[in-house]
Amino acid sequence: MKAFVVETYGKDGARAADVPVPTVGDRDVLVRVSAAGINPLDKMVRNGEFKRLLKYRRPFVLGHDVAGVVTQVGSAVHGFNVGDEVYARPRDLRVGGFAEFIAIDADDVAPKPASLTLQEAAAVPLVALAAWQILVERAQVKPEQKVLVHGGAGGLGSTVIQLAKHLGAAVATTANTRSEELVRSLGADVVVDYTKEDFSKVLSGYDLVLDSLGGANLEKSLTVLKPGGLAVSVVGPPDAGFAKQLGAPFFLGMVVNTLSRKIRKQAEALDVRYEFFFMQANGSQLRKLAALYDGGELRPVIDSTFPFDQTLEAMAHVEQGRTKAGKVVVSMVPDNG
After folding, report:
1. What is the Cα 299 distance to its own chain's centre?
2. Which strands, in side-by-side order, build the sheet including 14-18?
3. Distance (Å, rounded) from C-alpha 246 to C-alpha 74?
């Protein structure tokens, strides 16, 4: 089958290749890929940013978001049948959405939201799971709490705005001038145009900040939190909790924890908390999220769709910051039909 694989770590490490159709284990479903979403995580994994913690055996197929049709079901799998339309964020070390077929552990798969096309559904799993796991599990957001999400027009930001509003929170976001109308339509109560204003000068008293930029933006984010508030970053620096999540040895967890020592000390001085976040595959959560999409509580935002043979161009589109809003999708179906 045709696929896009990482052969060597680095910017030019991914290429098109012919590889065998994956073997289907007892607990797997084989999915014929209809579409796959592009995520910043694809670039990070391709570049080897987590290679000490995620031990991929190269060459491996890239791609963390997938939607398609079940073509084979493992002997121990119940609840899925050949012909089912599904979506998933396959678990780490088993990613591979940039291919004609992928074998996925059935626990990571869920029926596609009925209201979405397969191309739309491919834009959803990673960002929706991240939003759910941050807002519901990690921060346990309650009605009337205040949430700030940076980059509200992006794939993750646009999803977080909608889910936070569904949970009853007051939501602020940063965006550029052209995106203000979009993020307000998604439910943002306060929009700070980062081309004109410094968010840290106009916002305060927030319970949660979700950072996707890191660096100085993360440091400033700590200052808008109320005492006891939480800043969560999806770009790092990583902490010991991340290493533990991936099952790394204790000593490696200690090494990873030193990377976030500075920001954690800054947070402590302000009486707030910092945590790194790395989402986990979860089919049962995708089922709950599908109900929110089908109920109109959430909607995907898609920037553009590329044909499958232009997967590397689609990745470059995202890496070069050419995305105007939402997610980029690659589709197996000609003309996005």
Report:
1. 15
2. 14-18, 2-6, 60-61
3. 26
At 83, is the secondary structure helix, strand, or coil? coil
Neighbour order of strands in the sheet with 225-233: 190-193, 170-175, 146-149, 206-211, 225-233, 273-276
Per DSSP bridges, beta strands 273-276 and 225-233 are: parallel
- For 35, the token pair is 């579409």
Look at the block and give the residue holding tokens 């896009």: 4
Provide the residue-wise pLDDT of the chain in tens; the chain has 337 residues.
999 999 999 999 999 999 999 999 999 999 999 999 999 999 999 999 988 888 999 999 999 999 999 999 999 999 999 999 999 999 999 999 999 999 999 999 999 999 999 999 999 999 999 999 999 999 999 999 999 999 999 999 999 999 999 999 999 999 999 999 999 999 999 999 999 999 999 999 999 999 999 999 999 999 999 999 999 999 888 888 888 887 877 777 788 788 899 999 999 999 999 999 999 999 999 999 999 999 999 999 999 999 999 999 999 999 998 999 999 999 997 654 3
Residue 285 CB-half CA count within 13 A: 21
